[in-house]
Write a structure and sequence with these properties.
With 154 residues, the protein is mainly alpha-helical. Strands 1-2 form a two-stranded antiparallel ribbon. The two termini are 31 Å apart. The chain has 6 helices and 2 strands; from the N terminus they run ααααββαα.
């Protein structure tokens, strides 16, 4: 038996099963994102940028081009190319910052949000229904676990 593939320790085995299920979910989400990118004529990096920009909006974060570069782990030049593609497609708008007129922040256009909902809406509805089937303490446990996993990934 190969210990790293099938650990002898039952607790480690159970924990590894969670990791494998999480990996399965991540791969399925990646496939859905790839399909969306393909059907909408976007690069997968463009879709990741849109997701991060929507996350920033929900969190009340001022998403600047440099912030986006950091979120995507890309150089400023590569991020500029992504922003230009998204602007040209009408998916992102550059807006002047309210606090500093010299800087801009990025906002996903309403049409891009609509496009995303047309594609991901049914999937999100299924995921929401799955979460709603959990009681409050189970939802809290899953939320805490996923938060810890996100922190562990960096």
């Amino acid at each position: 038996m190969r210990e790293r593939v099938t650990p002898a320790d039952p607790e480690r085995t159970a924990a590894l099963e969670l990791v494998h299920r999480l990996r399965d979910v991540a791969l399925k989400l990646e496939l859905a994102i790839g399909e969306f990118a393909h059907t909408s004529g976007l690069h997968s990096t463009d879709v990741r940028a849109l997701v991060r920009l929507l996350d920033a909006e929900r969190a009340g974060v001022d998403a600047t081009p440099s912030w986006l570069a950091q979120q995507l782990g890309m150089t400023s030049q590569a991020t500029t190319a992504v922003i230009h593609r998204l602007e040209a497609a009408g998916h992102v708008e550059r807006l002047r910052s309210r606090s500093d007129a010299r800087s801009t922040h990025l906002q996903v256009s309403d049409s891009a949000v609509d496009l995303g909902w047309q594609f991901f809406g049914p999937l999100l509805d299924r995921l929401i229904a799955t979460a709603q089937a959990l009681d409050t303490s189970e939802q809290t446990l899953v939320k805490d676990y996923l938060g810890a996993v996100s922190d562990a990934l960096g």
